[in-house]
Amino acid sequence: MTDDELDLVYTSLCRTMTRLGEANAPLFLGRLSLLALARLASAADAQQLVAEAAVDIVPAATGEPPIALRPTAR
What does the domain layout of the chain look like in residue ranges? Predict the structure, then answer.
């Protein structure tokens, strides 16, 4: 996907979330995530994306430091 195509998809994503409303955003993003993860070649690829998405996000409830990108235990 080119940068221009990615920008168009991102714009579509934002417009869709605006149309659905803030209250429905978590459900929409969860559903979109599962649909996208299901298209990956392997569970390992999906696990890696989940880990990468969590980097630098501080859990609101705990105030703990950001989750570092680390390999999953096998």
Answer: 3-39, 42-74
Q: Where are the alpha helices (DSSP H) in 1-74?
A: 3-20, 25-38, 43-54
Contact between residue 66 and residue 57 where contact means Cβ atoms under 8 Å apart: yes
pLDDT tens, 36-55?
A: 999 999 999 999 999 898 88
Element (H, E) at 41: none
Which of 34, 7, 36, 31 lies closest to 20 in space, CA to CA? 31
Query: In the beta sheet, which residues pair with residue 61?
Result: none
Mind listing the pLDDT tens digit for each residue in 19-29?
999 999 999 99
Q: Which amino acid is located at 1 in the chain?
A: M
Q: Which one, of 13, 20, 14, lies nearest residue 36 by Cα?
A: 13
